[in-house]
UniProtKB/TrEMBL annotation:
tRNA processing keyword on record: no
Record's keyword terms, sorted: Hydrolase, Membrane, Signal, Transmembrane, Transmembrane helix
Spans through the membrane: 12-28
Top-level taxonomy: Bacteria, Pseudomonadati, Bacteroidota, Flavobacteriia, Flavobacteriales
Protein name: Putative glycosyslhydrolase
Gene Ontology molecular function, alphabetical: hydrolase activity
Pfam entry (one): Glyco_hydro_106
Keyword Cell division: no
PROSITE patterns documented for this protein: PROKAR_LIPOPROTEIN
């Protein structure tokens, strides 16, 4: 059997057993309302159930994944594999075209070329001849909805913030500089809003750097980890100090002779601690214990000569693809020159930075702002001092005072001010794993037009056109496979997310944008409510503009919809709502 063939049957066998159990349960539940005569003659007998289980009808048989590996495709191989699938008693295939290594003495087929289309036509025709259903992943690779036909303007977007500090009582007339990368075509930066507010107390301070560190675990490079000036190198899979630390990376912060690791940090003078920041969770957990993370940090402070517990905060449970957002843990505002951190629990972690900060931020705000899927830790609520909170009526919208090239002209009121330039960029994520000629931007998941253009103007639209390789009713289904494209946070058009929010929640979100950065706006209660409304809105927009519209376009093409789970796994939305839109979840 060739490398084209890959089966996965357990899911379908489980479904068949589930259907049998449902039938048996139905009869059992209904029996109290029926006569003995009906019990003697049920509509389906146990013998029929046994027979159906051993030799299920075709509609209950599994379908199989069918991966074309790289450019290694031949009509002869396709026919042999499909005939083997038919002989095995399966009812259909889900065709993928993924990246793969070259095979010796095999002529490579350029993906998306006329020669490749002829191979797809052959596979679809053979499925029709053999009575197999032909379903296709909607793009090259198995993740997710993208390809070289997706323009950068229709790619997945995420919010970025650039922060500026200015002194009041004078005229500000400068260009608000952005990260130089944002000016490149791939990032495709667009402005959202420009807001200013009085700088909350201690928000402009640098991270705290202890002058002395004591610990029961000297194998951890604490000095480097706590030093905000340490050089950090960030890749897709790691956040690392720029030095060899293999022992630490293999062992992490773990128990020492069955005793929890603790570290005592001392400062030259009293400092106020409000938040502790860690790298992305997938970059610090050891092994495969995600999504459940059994680790809490107990924070103690030296107060009036005694070591007192301030708080114990959990690292929030995460997801397997939590690689893009830091983790902010909040504690009650505490002033001391000595803090002790004890790492409690059964899991080790290996963070290569820990930032101690005087800035007041909402606990776990990255998850609460729907930027990443993590346990929300709703029970962690603190009262914040008034001078650390942004009052909504002090937030000034400066958007109309900034030119298209970023020059702001503003008569700054007295005091210290924070200016935030909110924008959105292409997340620079691509469909994968696909060969280079079939790789392009992931389409936006928050805009109907993006997914419609992806389906109608991309690979599927080209294949399904009249006379096309899978046209004329050959296509049974379209598949949305693995969601590995992280969490988009904005629409293609800067104003569209504002419109979605206001239409669904009944008020404007513009004033509350600083809350998406963790700032407390008005009060903890108001901020928490806004972020709950934001998550609710994001949930609905993902469902309506991506999953539901994908199904609408697919059905218009005559195709059923198959989808893998994403909500509750990597995406902060309702998983049941996704499954409800699929013909076959």
């Amino acid at each position: 059997m060739s490398n084209n063939f890959k089966t996965s049957t357990m899911r379908f066998l489980n479904l068949y057993v589930f259907l049998i159990i449902i039938q048996i349960t139905f009869f059992a539940c209904d029996s109290s309302k029926t006569s003995d005569k009906n019990l003697e003659n049920p509509s389906i007998s146990i013998a029929d159930l046994k027979k159906g289980f051993k030799n299920p009808e075709i509609q209950y048989r599994p379908e199989t994944w069918f991966h074309l590996n790289g450019n290694n495709i031949s009509k002869e191989g396709l026919t042999l594999d499909l005939e083997a699938i038919k002989e095995a008693g399966l009812q259909g295939i889900h065709l993928f075209n993924k990246a793969g290594r070259p095979f010796p003495n095999v002529k490579p087929i350029e993906i998306l070329s006329p020669e490749w289309e002829d191979m797809i036509r052959h596979a679809a025709d053979e499925c029709k001849r053999l009575g197999l259903k032909f379903t296709m992943q909607n793009c090259p690779g198995w993740s997710m909805t993208g390809g070289p036909w997706v323009p950068v303007e229709e790619a997945q977007r995420e919010v970025v913030e650039t922060v500026y500090r200015v002194e009041g009582g004078k005229t500000f007339n400068e260009v608000l500089q952005l990260d130089s990368l944002y000016h490149t075509p791939d990032y495709n930066y667009k402005d959202i809003q420009l807001l200013a507010f009085p700088t909350p107390k201690d928000d402009d301070l640098a991270p705290l750097n202890p002058s002395k560190i004591e610990t029961n675990n000297s194998l951890v490079p604490w000095q480097d980890i706590f030093n905000p000036n340490s050089k950090i190198i960030v890749t897709r899979t790691t956040t690392r100090l720029d030095k060899p630390l293999e022992y630490y990376r293999n062992h992490g912060i773990s128990k020492v002779d069955e005793v929890n690791t603790w570290v005592k940090t001392t400062f030259d003078k009293p400092v106020t601690l409000r938040t502790i920041k860690f790298p992305q969770l997938r970059h610090i957990i050891m092994g495969t214990q995600y999504p459940r993370i059994d680790l809490a940090i107990k924070v103690e402070a030296l107060l009036n000569g005694k070591l007192m517990e301030v708080a114990t905060v959990n690292l929030p449970d995460a997801n397997w693809n939590d690689r893009r957002k830091h983790v902010t843990l909040a504690i009650p505002e505490t002033t001391s020159n000595t803090f002790v951190f004890t790492f409690e629990g059964n899991h080790a972690i290996a963070p290569e930075f820990i930032r101690l900060s005087s800035s007041a931020k909402l606990h776990n705000h990255e998850a609460k702002a729907a930027k990443v899927l993590r346990r929300l830790e709703k029970n962690v609520q603190y009262d914040y001092a008034e001078n650390t909170i942004i009052k909504a009526n002090t937030i000034i919208n400066l958007t109309d005072k900034m030119t298209s090239n970023g020059r702001l002209t503003w008569e700054v009121p007295e005091g210290n001010w924070t200016i935030v330039r909110f924008g959105h960029i292409n997340m620079r994520l691509t469909n994968k794993p696909a060969v280079p000629e079939a790789t392009g931007w992931e389409s936006s998941k928050l805009d109907k037009i993006a997914i419609e253009n992806h389906l109608r103007n991309g690979m599927i639209g080209n294949l399904i056109k009249d006379g096309g390789p899978i046209g004329d009713g050959k296509l049974h289904g379209l598949l949305i496979d693995s969601w590995e494209s992280h969490v988009p946070t904005w629409t293609m058009n800067s104003e569209d997310m504002f419109k979605e929010f206001e239409q669904r929640r009944g008020y404007s979100m513009k004033t509350y944008l600083p809350a998406t950065m963790g700032y407390i706006v008005e009060s903890t209660e108001v901020t928490t409510k806004f972020l709950r409304d934001l998550r609710h809105t994001m949930d609905e927009v993902f469902i309506d503009n991506f999953f539901k519209h994908f199904a609408t376009v697919a059905h218009d093409m005559g195709a059923e919809v198959y989808t893998e789970g994403a909500g509750g796994e990597v995406l902060p939305i309702d998983p049941c709502a996704i499954m409800a839109l699929a013909t076959s979840p």
